[in-house]
Specification:
The chain has a single domain (about 35-430), classed as MFS general substrate transporter like domains (Growth Hormone, Chain: A, Up-down Bundle). About 80% of the residues lie in helices and about 0% in strands. It has 19 helices and no strands. It has helices at about 5-20, 30-35, 40-70, 75-100, 105-125, 135-160, 165-195, 200-220, 235-245, 250-265, 265-270, 270-280, 280-305, 315-335, 335-365, 370-380, 385-400, 400-420, 425-430. About 55% of the residues are buried.
Length: about 425
Amino acid sequence: MAKEDILIEEDLEITAATAGAAPVILPTRVISIFPALAHRNFQLYFMGQAISLIGFWLQQVGTGYYVFQITHSAFWVGASAAIGGLPFLIFTTFAGVAVDRVNKQKVLILTQAAEAVVDIALGILILTSRANLPLVVIAMFLIGCINSIDLPTRLTFLVEMVGKKDLASAIPINNGLFNAARFVGPALAGILIAFTSVGWTFILNGFSFIAGIWAILAIKPIYKYQAEVDVHPLESLKTGIKYSFTHPKILYFIILAFFSAIFIWPFQTLMPVVSEKVFHTGAHGLGTLLSAAGAGSLTGAIFTSANSARKNKIPLILIGIVISSVSLILFSLNQNFTLAHVILFLAGFGTLMQVSTLNTLVQLNSPDNMRARVMAVYLTMFVGVMPLGNILAGTLAQKTSALFTIGLSAALMLLVGAAFYFKGIFKNLAITN
């Protein structure tokens, strides 16, 4: 049976299993833009994550703000974020082997419960003035260890919720929800920090996991495949790594994700420094700047999901690189606080479009029984190298300035995109097998 025929047959089975079962029956026009939201599972996941991710951004802002307040160092702002991302580089590839073999639903419940405990404990220590930089660093590392297991599990669980056909819609919605929460979370964090204590950003994040756990418990997976349980874990690991770096398309997707992690994503880590030293707006300004980027990401998610049915998704990657890079270059040259929000909106739009499309194409080009391992390698080279990007950005910002660092990094990413374009790599990636 042809690959397209198999997908059609799977889609019919999934449609039969989910038809009329969704908590909210959405209009046809909405479903045409967000096909994944027709699924009961994804609606439940969406509702749980909408609350949980607001808590996540409370903590992200709280961490950067707290570290900068106790150290007054751009280096330590970048270094603390780097330490939190370090476990992705160390553990994620190995975690992918286990994720391909276990019940992803149970893993997600355990990881969320574990992170909630760490967050609440750290928040209480901050409120009681018992926290310090070493404790924050330890907590960030522990959370990073938990997330190095949670993220590959979560991303590969999406296909079990909605099937392959609507995966290209589910991924940008998931990423868009993550970034759209940045539209609410940072602004709320700014208010909490200004009127109460930064410790509450951690505590409320811990309690927000209740919604995420409830949603995962309520999901009924509809897409099944046979796992390779009879293969030795080390052999399974070797196979996943080899496939990731020898499959021509996945290799280039990984390369693009790697450079994006080094040159684009650190701009978010440097926002506390920009808010304090450039715009002199404190926690409130930090919240609104990150919220602007989050609003752009939400718009990017809508655009990317609406284009999920198009066969050639490569232009979305190229356009995303250009928009995000040029926007951040302009941001580095700007001194106007209001205009900064507009520019960050565009940066969020382009970044979401690029990353969501890369994520989708990696999953669609991976075999079912190897998807978690391939995604784990991809995440290692993307999320795992973000610590390196954060350390480089923090060090350079300490010696020069945060704006110079953001502009230089964006210019380098634009050069990477140009090299891919003029070498014809994007054109080759668009060719279907």
